[in-house]
Description:
Blueprint lengths: L1 H23 L1 H10 L3 H23 L2 H24 L4 H24 L4
Helix pairs in contact: 1-2, 1-3, 1-5, 3-4, 4-5
Amino acid sequence: MIVLQILILFISISFFFYGLGCFYSPKMYEEFKRFGLSPIQRQLTGFFQVLGALGLAAGYFFMPLIGFLAAIGLFLLMGLGFGVRIKIKDNFTQSFPSLFFALLNLYVAFRFIEVFDLF
Length: 119
């Protein structure tokens, strides 16, 4: 259970601040241009990252189903991010974080099912 708590805290903080960066960071503006994505796609990505971060935390403390859905949503978001990295031919070092976070969120989703006896 402590591992799940640590992972949720780590993921939530990471996605919360990365999501905010999508709105305010000039570096993020440039990255999304490099990805070939529009400003609205950058803003939607940031919105869903912040929402996912809050959903994970809320799901752990209040409603496990919300946490599960947030983890699945972040898994899909990072899976798409990994696909973008592959499409633009980023190297392994550049692509790995998106794959890592996708798999981490998938693991957390399964742990929500197991720990909170969902479904």
